[in-house]
């Protein structure tokens, strides 16, 4: 019997099956999955489905980027944003990519494809973004702003830096307007201000929330095997130390994915 090495995205809402388990019984037609890229290990292949699938959706919510697109990514060193930036550079050939992240991550994020870095630890993010539009872009606004951390820094200047609804531009978030607290309900990620943004009449720009895509695997496999994507693993823990893995995630300091390894 031939055995295929696969990875995929398993997202049960309720049920007896958890993700920290040695065995799962799945129906491939109901679960986004595929044969792992030939140049990835099983460990590496376990790290990309969730974040890559989310990144894919952020880049097709309002307008699919092309060689004319200017995109600002909030949280460029985070796991989802790493793939957003790589897709923008390697797949969509975006004109310009700006990332908001700490200075300590600047070189790493630039290696992924970012052109400009806004260091949120030293700069006023809104002022820095406005300055890029005015000086670097000669007044041309962003086509997309993609928030991967939960931020409201740019809303005071949003109409100055983001193209309007009529141009199919938009602001895309994966977590709402505040940093996710993994100890609370997913609904706590959304402030009252976030909900207000879902009412089109209250804003001049497009605003939307995205989760994962189901059709991500063929593209991921292709780009990995072409050498256009890289994975980043922050840390690994044996199954018996799974709580340490969750604790690491809760610090919001992991650069890349945290892996729980099942011993043979």
Q: How are the SSEs placed, and which strands pair?
A:
Layout: E1 6-8, E2 33-35, H1 42-45, H2 49-58, E3 70-74, H3 79-90, E4 96-101, H4 106-112, E5 116-119, H5 125-136, E6 144-147, H6 158-161, E7 170-173, H7 192-197, E8 207-209, H8 217-225, E9 233-238, H9 242-250, E10 257-261
Parallel strand pairs: 3-4, 3-6, 4-5, 6-7, 7-8, 9-10
Antiparallel strand pairs: 1-2
Helix pairs in contact: 2-3
N-end to C-end Cα span: 20 Å
Oligomer: single chain
The profile of the biggest β sheet is: 6 strands, parallel
- Spans where pLDDT lies below 50 across 5 or more residues: none
What integer value in Å does the Rg equal? 19 Å
Number of strands: 10
Order of helices and strands: EEHHEHEHEHEHEHEHEHE
What order do the strands of the largest sheet run in, or round the barrel if closed? 5-4-3-6-7-8
Helical region count? 9
The mean pLDDT is 89
Give the % helix: 25-40%
What would you call the shape?
globular
- The structural class is alpha/beta
Q: What portion of the residues fall into strands of 2 or more residues? A: 15-25%
